[in-house]
Write a structure and sequence with these properties.
This protein has helices at about 5-25, 30-55, 65-80. By secondary structure, the protein is mostly helical. It has a domain at about 1-60. Helix 1 (about 5-25) runs antiparallel to helix 2.
């Protein structure tokens, strides 16, 4: 399942599920145990496929501001804010 190829991982899951079913038929594993293992396997497989799809569609991360740009942005914001102190009339 670590394969990047979705078809190869799907084939691996099918093979594993088949092996589990055979083990249940022969009595090596309890049928409920097999069902639980298959369910967990399918859940991991689905989430892995979803993660690869999301990773392919994800937009590139935004660049972080450097300290210098951050400082100038704060200064600009301070200048734009109106002063809370009232000016005294003379």
């Amino acid at each position: 399942m670590a394969s990047a190829d979705p078809q190869a991982s799907a084939e691996a899951v099918r093979t594993a599920a088949s092996a589990l079913d055979q083990a249940a038929q022969k009595g090596a594993l309890h049928p409920r145990s097999v069902a639980r293992r298959k369910s967990r396997l399918m859940k991991k497989h689905s989430s892995a496929l979803a993660a690869t799809v999301v990773a392919e569609e994800a937009a590139p991360a935004r660049k972080r501001r450097t300290k210098k740009k951050e400082a100038t942005a704060k200064e600009v914001a301070k200048k734009k804010r109106p002063s809370s102190k009232k000016k005294k009339k003379e």
